[in-house]
Amino acid sequence: MRLSTFGTSMAGAAALAMAPSASAVAPTTATVQVNCGDWGSGQARLGVQQNGTAAAITFSTPVVWATHSFPANSMQTTLTLSDAHGAEVTFTGQSNPAWTLLGQAYDSGPLTGTVTPGEALEVKSLTSTYGTFTVHCTATSPQNPGPFVF
Fold it and tell me: Which residue, 121, 140, 128, is CA-closest to 93?
């Protein structure tokens, strides 16, 4: 091997060793049955991404729908997840699309939080507020296909 090729190969190996690890979370999407009080019950869809100990989750459900307009990034949202032992982890954010069309389904996220490698979490509840308007949904079934394992 020529010396210049050896140097290039070593630099490439060092860059790979220092690169951030890819998302290890599985599954990356899930569904769960939710009860949203006066709004009713139905299915919610979740999407998750992980970068080290940081994770972001999106939550959407047609159970809750727009009755009037809300601006983008205006709803303060807390998503609570729990592990098999009942310990809770919260994801928070104020990231929602504009809710402008009557009947438009509820969307929130990304909601961000910190996770521990190997941790398995399932959605427990979601609370979202804007002024006096509040959405509160509680999970009524296990996640399908299973908990998010980070």
Answer: 128
